[in-house]
Amino acid sequence: MGGHIVTSFDDDLIELRARISEMGGLAETLLALALDSVEKRDSALADEVITKDKRIDALEFEVERLATQVIVKRQPLAQDLRLVISAMKLSTTLERIGDLAKNIAKRGKHLSTTSPMRVSGSVVRMGRQALAQLTAVLDAYAKTDVEAAISVWRRDVEIDDAYNAMFRELVTYMMEDPRTIGHGSQLLFIAKNLERIGDHATHVAEMIYYTAKGEPLGDDRPKGDPSDLEPRS
Amino acid sequence: MGGHIVTSFDDDLIELRARISEMGGLAETLLALALDSVEKRDSALADEVITKDKRIDALEFEVERLATQVIVKRQPLAQDLRLVISAMKLSTTLERIGDLAKNIAKRGKHLSTTSPMRVSGSVVRMGRQALAQLTAVLDAYAKTDVEAAISVWRRDVEIDDAYNAMFRELVTYMMEDPRTIGHGSQLLFIAKNLERIGDHATHVAEMIYYTAKGEPLGDDRPKGDPSDLEPRS
């Protein structure tokens, strides 16, 4: 190690990681802004999310371009190659998270003109859980911390549980009072997008594991029971 | 076109596409077997899915290896590069579909020992819808048929609707008769995995579009309303 070529590959990786880190930071910002726009019924914040999402889209192509260049120039093998390919896959995942945040913001705009509903607070809290998972997994990526990645992967069950509990709660409200249906449907969509962001965080955790270990993370991840009416066995 | 290097790149692409086609065929088989195992409460079929999923995992690495080789050897640009990168991304998506099918099969095994429930039939029907979407999008990929890809992308709303209707139906059953909770929970999980397979089919449709056009497919896809208690506006 320490030779000229190795150093240059390291430089390439630093640049790739810098782009991923920019994308990750943006994805976090978009999600945080989207949640704020839902909480405060603030249309201007929602518009900011919609505009900023374009930057993530552009960064995805930038990462693809850089990663391809590195493969051509350095012809990396084994773990080095896994690092480059995982950067490319991660960029796709972060772009999808940005899309989901944008979708949440768009739905937040519909909420701003209708009556509030007690359950909005739970949706925003679930959103902060998803944001915490995203932050933790991006941190694990930056530090190549496999243990931290595994614990994000295991914690996803909590978001699944929150989603399933909220689904039942919202459906019950809407059945009791049909005037809440319009508002409740938007909240259900938002909750569903948040649950998906949680899923993407687990995909990132799987990539971190695979890149470091060269083998896939098992598939015995605890999963949120969509009924949750029975005690976890 | 028609020169020596172009022809060789085409040969590489044919090999890449052959691997993707093998993966796609396997993903379809796994899903079909998983649905059969649920329908017939057949544990042996479920075990077959679990075993065959290993082959998809191996193919994902094979596609990554091939795609990287092609990038190094041919240094493709523009649409050629998009073709190679989309093959790599598609392999990840197909691997995830295989995982979801395996998860369905595992849950199908739990069903085999418990009492039947009327709603199982709807879950299997929803599964056949998801399978039809998967088949259609793989067909669109093989033929580079952008129009067919767009129609798969638009049709995903039907699976979302089926999932949301089933969720409410199952929750209602379980509330009325707590003895159905164990069975119903497994069915909910299966329905959720099927809905996710539908989502992955739309991701493939987006890749086909992007590879052909060089720009992303818009984000105005009709989405299934998780309430569906109100008429679609």
From TrEMBL, chains A, B:
Primary subcellular site in the record, as a coarse category: cytoplasm
Compartment(s) of residence: Cytoplasm
Pfam families xrefs: PhoU
Bilayer-crossing regions: none
UniProt keyword Cytoplasm present: yes
InterPro entries: PhoU (IPR028366), PhoU-like_sf (IPR038078), PhoU_dom (IPR026022)
Residues covered by the PhoU domain: 20-107, 124-207
Gene Ontology process terms (BP): intracellular phosphate ion homeostasis; negative regulation of phosphate metabolic process; phosphate ion transport
Keyword field: Cytoplasm, Phosphate transport, Transport
GO cellular component: cytoplasm
Assembly and interaction partners: Homodimer.
Protein name: Phosphate-specific transport system accessory protein PhoU
Source organism per UniProt: Pikeienuella piscinae
Phylogenetic classification of the source organism: Bacteria, Pseudomonadati, Pseudomonadota, Alphaproteobacteria, Rhodobacterales
Gene designation: phoU
